[in-house]
Amino acid sequence: MSNPPKIRRASPSRVVGDIKREQYFAKLALDRPDVGLCRATTLVAKSIDSDLTGYDISAAQHLVLKMLSDVGPCSQQELSEQLRIDRSVMVGCIDGLEDSGFVRRERHPKDRRANVIVPTPDGFAALTEVENGVPDFLDRAFQALTPAERRTLARLMIKILDVA
């Protein structure tokens, strides 16, 4: 005897057409921009993950390759600090990039106790492939914003992060 499929029902307290409930998050985001920013970050992160499914690279690995390409070889610690990726996650990220042949670990030229992460030609090729899709990704991720609003958002984020 098979069990019938379970039907997922809406919460009994949910009333379709209840404007107050439907607009709650918009009001919350105005009152608590920290909550809105976290939710927006989650939505953009999901969009990134979705866009990168066709590539052999994660969002974190893309950021690592991008930084290495832009600033040159770095230690894992510097990558972790600059990209705000937890150190334990960074180890797995670098391991994956190394296993794919996209980076290699070399002895740090000034500190024999440390390594630097160096991109390989295959790493640069993977980065180029992903970077070619970035404009389309940004258009999809931020489609609700005009170009001027995107620039304003970027300026405000820089101000919040105090990195200008």
Count of strand segments: 2
How many helices does DSSP assign?
9
| C-alpha-based Rg, rounded | 21 Å
Structural class comes to: mainly alpha
Largest sheet: 2 strands, antiparallel
Summarize the amount of helix as a percent range: 55-70%
**H/E element order:** HHHHHHEEHHH
As laid out across the biggest beta sheet, the strand order is 1-2
Shape: extended
Instruction: Bin the strand percentage.
Output: 5-15%
End-to-end separation in angstroms reads 66 Å
The low-confidence runs, each spanning 5 or more residues with pLDDT under 50, are none
Q: Mean pLDDT, nearest integer? A: 87
Keywords:
164 residues, mainly alpha, two-stranded antiparallel ribbon, 2 strands, 61% helix, 6% strand
Give a written overview of the molecule.
By secondary structure, the chain is mostly helical. It has helices spanning 19-22, 24-31, 33-51, 59-71, 76-83, 87-99, 121-132, 134-141, 147-161; strands spanning 103-107, 115-119. Helix 2 packs across helix 3, helix 4 crosses helix 7 (121-132) and helix 5 (76-83) packs across helix 6 (87-99).
How would you summarize what this structure contains?
With 164 residues, the chain is mainly alpha-helical.
